[in-house]
Amino acid sequence: MAKILICDEIDEEATDKLKNFADVETGKEKLNDLEKLEKYDCLIVRSATKITKDVIAKAKNLKIIARAGAGLDNVDMIAAKEKGIKVVNAPDSLTISVSEMVFGSLLCLIRKISDADKSMKKGKWEKKKFKGNEIYGKNLGIIGFGKIGKRVAAIANAFNARVFAYDSLITDEKIYENLNVRHCKSIDEILKECNIISLHVPLMNETKNLINEGNIKLIKKDAVIINTSRGGIINEKALTDVLKNNEIAGACLDVFENEPNLNPEFKNLENVVLTPHLGSATEEAQKRAGMDVVVQIEKFFKG
Predict the structure, then answer these.
(1) pTM above 0.85, yes or no
(2) GO annotations under biological process (predicted)?
(3) pLDDT at residue 111, rounded to an integer
(4) What SS3 state is found at 92?
């Protein structure tokens, strides 16, 4: 019977399904006992746990790593490949939750919902202070046009926004046209043209500091930027500088460079909405992610 370590909690129903065909243990702390790692055939993680080269080297019987989510930046893919270890994930499971989070945080920012809520709870009625902006008619730019980017485009169209998108890997004009999206040829075009900018790219060497001290200056003064993808894609110093100087209108951030530690510069800014990596934190998304990887694990071990 395969031995599986669940490092980060997954859906209870998915865990029960695992127990039907495997010996299951839980607890991230067990990764610290590197000497005992060799007994596991499979490791399951979400975003909190990093599967490093050292972990892979010590887990001598490891055959498969499952990421109950989309991004694989917390798994050393090179080390896994060198050892012949299969890596699976659940890229489709989070699309709905993350794309809905984009608009939840966006509306919270541009309609000043959080600030109004805090004011009301202090017994105040400051209606004039919290005049906001609509999504309707705005230029909404999407950087990264994968599944989540496309879903964001569909929702943006429902708001009657004008949707723009850039993706270095997707060049077929028909894909954009079919979704009523204007295809931009560069990131700079998105930054210059759009009032709302939403990032949907994985964290890789090519996307680290994708938004940086240079190109962030292209963003309009009345624009907001949203990051629900990965910390590190926006250079946080560059972002805090333009926010402090009111060079852009605001930011919605669900991901950060050094999670769970927050850059202290953000704490004093009123033009940001901050959330602790909640993009996939819905009951439905976690159930989908858990069941998706369990099905793949079962297929792997049962052939």
Answers:
(1) yes
(2) amino acid biosynthetic process
(3) 98
(4) coil
